[in-house]
Amino acid sequence: MNLGSVLLERGDPAAARSHYEAALRIDPEFPQAHGGMYYALTRLGERELAKLHQDKSFGRKALFPSPYRGDSEPVPVLLLVSSTGGNTPIEKLIDDRVFQAYVVVADYYDTRIPLPSHRLVINGIGDCDAAGQALMAAESLLTFTGAPVLNAPAAVRVTGRCENASRLGKLPGIRTPVTVTFPYGLLAGQDGLAALAGRGFTFPLLLRTPGFHMGQHFVRVESPAALASAVAGLPGSGNPEAEVMAIEYLDARGADGNARKYRVMTVGGRSYPLHLAISKDWKIHYFSADMHDHSEYRAEEAHFLADMSGVLGSKAMLALERLLDEIGLDYGGIDFGLSQSGELLLFEANATMVVELPDGDQRWDYRRAAVERIQDAVRNLLMARAGVVPGCIANSNLGLAATHLNC
Length: 407
Prior knowledge:
Low-confidence stretches: 393-406
Radius of gyration: 22 Å
Strand order of the largest sheet: 1-3-2-4-5
Strand content: 15-25%
Structural class: alpha/beta
Shape: globular
Largest sheet: 5 strands, mixed
Number of strands: 16
Order of helices and strands: HHHHEEEEHEHHEEHHEEHEEEHHEEHEE
Helix content: 25-40%
């Protein structure tokens, strides 16, 4: 079971499936194994079978108490998640020596059952393109509580790529790509080119399957002649509900020919630089960029982390402040590039982004303080929203801990 989860996280759903199947042979009713099968089969394109496992998993159990390791009375919180994925990895920052978290699968929770006692609701559903129904269910659940809410579902629901392109592109100093969602069958058919042209697209352009991240099912199409093969390589064949997102290509290359993608996190209304990825490839992710082998790239990133405003310039910083105000998330991230004129080129702005410490390689030592600063800001935000008084917090070598629930 656990090995299946690791394999799924590493991008091998077929191997993960075999381990989930083994777990279900031992216990055919094991909900976590059914949940794993759902995610594996979804990625493998077996949607009907996946739906059966989804219902067997979350239809039977939609509330999961997380372990608590503290020595005093815990601070109870609800963490709302989606059964379909698209969840924010914020659970890694919920200190289990302070908080007792109750994970609520919003789109399967039976509202006739009272919610566990809690002092804070954390909406962990971050990707509205993948979990729109779960966000609506989360909004309904909030009618049963008067506790403070972190990342209100209504704020998250308008952070889809199409919505962001429309509303955020109106802000001064920000350029967003034209983004349109098409039925898979339309782009795969003989009218695909006409459909794209009718919405103003030219080549090169980008195609992306909604709901996937880390560059999965995300391709650049160089010419009209390459469209058919590009669409055929995306999941959706035979699924009448499948969609493909067409995205205008924004050139984020600098004078040296390298593309740059900046990531800034927003926590409680403040912005924090997280990383700068530099690559010769148009599709930039930090794990696949050229940072590991180029000390000059790492030096440039270190400069960004130490002096974000100086690196970005006043024009981009002002645009970034406007953008953060507009998206209205308590926790979120913004991926962007810079045009040659200093204009902010927005790639993505939502609540799904990960904040994790780099591995133990010494070449990443310059990044650790920036990551720890963001993680501390999230922990402090959770404390404040849950009503834990700062004077009742004790420091330890493991982080922050509340000494008593009533503080």
